[in-house]
Fold:
Amino acid sequence: MAAKISSPALREARHRIAQLGTLGADLVAAIDRRGTRVIFSSLISGGFTLNVINTIFMDPHLQDPQQADLLACTLAHECSHVQQGYLVDSVQQELIAYQTGAKIADALNYAYGKQLFAPFLALDPTREQDLETARQHILALAGGSVPTRTIYSSLPLFQPTGAADNLVAALRQLSAAGLAGLQALRRPG
Ligand SMILES: [Zn+2]
Structure:
């Protein structure tokens, strides 16, 4: 199976990631194995993954060819969510995804991305104090985006697993964010 990607910019980003050593190959393998759909959605700022419907949503502003490196880093971040495979998000899961984006920025020698994501590399996803710090970094990156700030403020620090990682909890997390992006789920493509 292959990831379901029709946009040329997203196909190119997937191709670039796949070239970046074991890390990149494993990220692309994760979305290929599941046949994950990757689409642009104007309702999304940056990127957003919903494993419950096996879909990655990407910000259409990243289609600009000048943003190709940021597109690759953001797609790598979202592939990390697919690779981690949970229905419910957490600060721990986000930290691992941001560290993935930082490593891809390094591999691309993408100066802005290295600077943007470097603070995450110093943090340990298993330490509570580092997860609190990661949440502050994530909120800083969210800037003025109210839905993004709302969802990251309410995320559990540690990853819920097993019975706690379920559909109802995932939907509760989304509705807590008041995420307008749910509309996008009905869009084909
Ligand atoms: Zn994320």
